[in-house]
Amino acid sequence: MDWLLIKFVLIAAISVIPLDANALNENQDLIPINSEKEQVVGNLPEAKITLYAIQKGGNLTKFRLESNGNVWNFPNWRNVSNPAYNPKMYYKDINSDGSKEIIIVLTTDYGTGILEQNVHVFHNNKTNTEEAFKEVLADNPIAIIQKNVETTLNESEATITIGNEKTVIKIGKTGINPKQLFSEIFIGNLIEYKVLDDELTAIIGAQIAPVGGDIGSFFITYTFKDNMYQLKK
């Protein structure tokens, strides 16, 4: 008799526990709290191409490229969420094959003396039935500089040698305290990509001190060779 009473009390208690707000009827949509919302972060009207991403924290992630109903997902791409640094998109013939390529530039970091970008280049291998974009590698611009440029830095001058051309910058004219100089010319903090005169171009800043130490930039133009974008000049 006591056992039956306990069982009845338990059933009654369970029956009045309020349902979780997300425990909806199977015919209703489940709408999670703080759901991620996809947004347009770039487009190329001429090519009918739109780039979407989801903002999460201080970054744009889970990118999706859409063209004429075709979709390509890039879950590992990342761009800062500041709208001033939204992805840049170009639709240019950068390999002189008569067909325009898609160039997408992502900014992964920025700040005082810092701008870090990476580039994604797509060739359109269009078939009779659909678009078929294929990403093509562009050689690392820092590696290009390391292979083709010699630099020296001391308290009186910075020297940059490219091939047979030597550039000398007098430290005294920069107004930088020699005690604040790096041990060598630094080329890792300013990495920017643009399409200039229909050529993919990387612009790499050269710095000799942490504050006010920008002494100029390397401009690297690319050419398409051996199925990738390599150094042209």
Helix and strand topology:
Elements: H1 2-15, E1 38-44, E2 49-56, E3 59-67, E4 70-74, E5 79-80, E6 88-92, E7 101-111, E8 114-124, E9 133-136, H2 141-148, E10 149-153, E11 157-162, E12 165-170, H3 171-174, E13 190-196, E14 199-207, E15 214-225, E16 228-231
Parallel strand pairs: 8-13
Antiparallel strand pairs: 1-2, 2-3, 3-4, 3-5, 6-7, 7-8, 8-9, 10-11, 11-12, 13-14, 14-15, 15-16
Descriptive account of the structure:
It is a single chain. The chain is mostly beta strands and 233 residues long. Helices cover 11% and strands 48% of the residues. It has 3 helices and 16 strands. Strands 6, 7, 8, 9, 13, 14, 15 and 16 form an 8-stranded mixed beta sheet that branches. Strands 1, 2, 3, 4 and 5 form a 5-stranded antiparallel beta sheet that branches. A hairpin with a 4-residue loop joins strand 1 (38-44) and strand 2. It starts with a helix and ends with a strand. Residues 1-35 have low confidence and may be disordered.
Number of strands: 16
Main β-sheet description = 8 strands, mixed
Order of helices and strands: HEEEEEEEEEHEEEHEEEE
Helix residue percentage: 10-25%
Beta-strand portion reads over 45%
Q: What do the pLDDT scores average to? A: 85
- Indicate the structural class: mainly beta
Terminal Cα span:
94 Å
Properties at a glance:
flat; 11% helix; single chain; eight-stranded mixed sheet; mainly beta; 3 helices; disordered N terminus; 233 residues; five-stranded antiparallel sheet
